[in-house]
From TrEMBL:
InterPro entries: BRCT_dom, BRCT_dom_sf, DisA/LigA_HHH, DNA_ligase, DNA_ligase_AS, DNA_ligase_CS, DNAligase_adenylation, DNAligase_N. PANTHER family: CHROMOSOME TRANSMISSION FIDELITY FACTOR 18 (PTHR23389), DNA LIGASE (PTHR23389:SF9). One of its GO terms (molecular function) is DNA ligase (NAD+) activity. It comes from Splendidivirga corallicola. DNA ligase that catalyzes the formation of phosphodiester linkages between 5'-phosphoryl and 3'-hydroxyl groups in double-stranded DNA using NAD as a coenzyme and as the energy source for the reaction. It is essential for DNA replication and repair of damaged DNA. It comes from the Bacteria. Zn(2+) binds at C405, C408, C423, C429. Its cofactor is Mg(2+); Mn(2+). The keyword Manganese applies. This is DNA ligase. Belongs to the NAD-dependent DNA ligase family. LigA subfamily. Residues 589-668 form the BRCT domain. It catalyses: NAD(+) + (deoxyribonucleotide)n-3'-hydroxyl + 5'-phospho-(deoxyribonucleotide)m = (deoxyribonucleotide)n+m + AMP + beta-nicotinamide D-nucleotide.
Length: 668
């Protein structure tokens, strides 16, 4: 291909990809499947690799990251990024309103109310409609240039498609990690033996400062824009609407309020309602709407006089700390849990709270019997935030972290630089043995849904299960004689184990439970080495040559295959017929949760096109069927579907599910 033809094709692909990105992220719809989108993107990546001189700053390939930034340049803000004054009471909010009224004299004024998102403030500069710079708040006067990382956030436009955009302007917003992404990230970290992250806000902040932008892209950060600078507008409300028209991602939760009483109504409305949002919030930002009035009111040394943040008080209560128990995870990590006198908090009765690790216990200076403060903001799991020392029994002793495993009495270890204590008895500690089997059978791994935690306990207690390979040697009589098992349940369990032999190699590799090897890392290793034997024989240097495989993962893989017991486990899995080789043409699936299930898709859907839904079905192991018959498992029914198809499904007893029910099935 000539440079001229490559240039034309790059322009065409860029326009087409930007169009589909805008549909997906701004209009919540899709005209092509994920696979078709990926094909367009991969073609563009290949062309830019062959013709690097043609790569543009606003290329959609910036979204996938890959640039390594060793140091972030410090940049001065054109407009200072000041913080807001905070209040926690309606009385102080009314005092703020009185100061505004006094400052404006007889002028009529109104407020704009916006939810205060708990994320990282970011300033974006656009020139000729193209994103040129993204800078963190820093100290308000100067911040870090993180443009490369910001470009991976798909809701931040790289190039504006709207007409009438000024030559240069600045917008500000909040980068955040959605709660669902944060929860999924922590589950993955726990599953592969890493310490869970503290909260979404700190995780978003740390992610934005990562050196490898491809890792930033994988974290799926999001961003709401809420302020426009460098453009003449009469009111803040007009500016926000302009941002929406230009294609920026603006939260639809803002509201114009005519007076402070309407502001208080807004605050009260969102006090509980905010917990339904996909991100954490901690209050409401109230701004005088008119820009001229903002200028008239001016600033103090630290904050504007025309704006204030109302902060919600975190849900909290005090109760008695009765005891601390210690849980042993699959990797041997020891997690302390506080057992509390039951107390009502945020509408639920709380009996337990997470303590994370020994450092947290020491920080709180906990004594058994303490009256502790328990808090629940947007978090699912309550946490202890402090102790009422004045109520402490002087004879009580400080809590000392255990020194031996609560399950097998092995002396615990704590690696230098790590917060967690570990039980090193991975071959003989019951929770670790059973935890490895539970990990092995999970949906993303071997997907043996006929086997649960209770059955694993029964098999372990009978001496029938010491490692995952033992599953493939179970007999009918051994299972049938377990408590609660009958003929059908026995056959179902053995059939489920037998079917797992067809699970692809990348999922088997994940199922082995190698520390730090999550689902994505397992897929990369499987694709690179193609077989368990090649992976087991790889040198440290071979491993770190694989994209995104660092020294820690490489060392963990080497440690795993350097263990004689693990090599025996692999051999026994081979003998059982488990797939330990990746077929080169084999498609790597997101999951096997829909394995052996057939679907008919009909109608119009809210979040996906029909083609996109078909791809989701296939990516999760399901089969697609064109017509309704008695052999179809599910009819995925959208709006405006044909009545005859619906009637036929009902007559044949085909299960009819909605888009939401389908997404729940795959844990989307």
């Amino acid at each position: 291909m000539t440079e001229e033809s490559a240039k034309l094709r790059i322009e065409q692909l860029t326009k087409e990809i930007n169009y589909h990105n805008d549909l997906y992220y701004q209009k919540d719809t899709s005209e092509i499947s994920d696979q078709q989108f990926d094909e367009l993107l991969n073609e563009l990546i290949a062309l830019e690799k062959d013709f690097p001189q043609l790569k543009q700053d606003d290329s959609p390939t910036q979204r996938v990251g890959g640039t390594i930034t060793k140091n972030f340049e410090t940049v001065s803000h054109k407009y200072p990024m000041l913080s807001l004054s905070n209040t926690y009471s309606q009385e102080e909010l009314r005092d703020f309103d009185k100061r505004v009224a006094k400052g404006l004299g007889e002028e009529v004024y109104e407020y704009i109310c916006e939810l205060k998102f708990d994320g990282v403030a970011l300033s974006l500069t656009y020139e000729n409609g193209i994103l040129k710079r993204a800078v963190t708040r820093g100290d308000g006067e100067k911040g870090d240039d993180i443009t490369t990382n910001a470009k991976t956030i798909r809701t931040i436009p790289l190039k504006l498609q709207a007409n009438g955009v000024p030559n240069e302007f600045e917008v500000r917003g909040e980068v955040f990690m959605p709660l669902a992404v944060f929860d999924r990230l922590n589950k993955e970290r726990e599953d592969i033996g890493e310490v869970p992250l503290a909260n979404p806000r700190n995780t978003a902040s740390g992610t934005l400062k990562m050196q490898d932008s491809s890792v930033v892209a994988s974290r799926k950060l999001d961003c709401y824009l809420y302020s426009l600078l460098g453009e003449n507008t009469t009111t803040h409300g007009e500016a926000v609407k302009m941002l929406e028209q230009w294609g920026f991602n603006v939260s639809p939760t803002y509201r114009l309020c005519k007076n402070v009483e309407e502001v208080i109504q807004y605050i009260e409305e969102w006090e509980e309602k905010r917990f339904q949002l996909p991100l954490e919030t901690d209050g409401i930002v109230i701004k005088v709407n008119n820009h001229q009035q903002q200028e008239s009111l001016g600033f103090t040394a630290k904050s504007p006089r025309w704006a204030i943040a109302y902060k919600y008080k975190a849900e909290n209560a005090s109760t008695r700390l009765n005891s601390i128990t210690y849980q042993v995870g699959r990797t041997g990590a020891i997690t302390p849990v506080a057992n509390l006198e039951p107390v009502l908090l945020a509408g639920t009765t709380v009996k337990r709270a997470s303590l994370h690790n020994a450092n947290e216990i020491a920080r709180l200076d906990l004594h058994l019997g303490d009256l502790v403060y328990v808090e629940k903001g947007g978090e699912i799991i309550p946490k202890i935030t402090g102790v009422d020392v004045s109520q402490r029994d002087k004879k009580s002793n400080a809590v000392e972290f255990i020194t031996t495993c609560p399950e097998c009495d092995t002396v615990l270890i704590r690696q230098e630089g790590e917060a967690m204590h570990y039980c090193p008895n991975d071959k003989g500690c019951p929770p670790q043995i059973k935890g490895r089997v539970e990990h092995f059978i999970q949906r993303k791994a071997m997907n043996i849904d006929s086997l649960g935690e209770r059955t694993i306990d029964l098999l372990y207690n009978e001496g029938l299960l010491k490692d995952p390979a033992d599953l493939y040697h179970l007999t009918y009589d051994q299972v049938y004689n377990l408590e609660g098992f009958k003929d059908l349940s026995t056959k179902n369990l053995l059939a489920g184990i037998d079917q797992s032999k067809e699970i692809p190699f990348d999922s088997v590799l994940f199922a082995l439970g190698i520390r730090y090897v999550g689902k994505t890392v397992a897929e990369k290793l499987a694709k690179h080495f193609l077989s368990i034997d090649a992976l087991a024989g790889a040198s440290f240097e071979d491993l770190i040559e694989v994209p995104e495989i660092g020294e820690r993962i490489a060392q963990s893989v080497q440690d795993f295959f350097g263990d004689e017991d693990n090599l025996k486990l692999v051999e026994r899995l081979k003998e059982a017929g488990v797939k330990l080789v990746l077929d080169e043409e084999e498609e790597v699936l997101n999951s096997h949760v829909l394995s052996e299930k057939s679907f008919v898709i009909s109608g119009v859907f809210e979040n996906f096109s029909r083609d996109a839904l078909k791809e989701v079905v296939k990516k999760n192991g399901g089969k697609l069927v064109s017509g309704i018959s008695g052999k179809v498992d599910y009819l995925l029914a959208g709006d405006k579907m044909g009545p005859s198809k619906l009637e036929k499904a009902k007559n044949l007893g085909v299960q009819i599910i909605s888009e939401k029910e389908f997404l729940d099935m795959i844990n989307y």
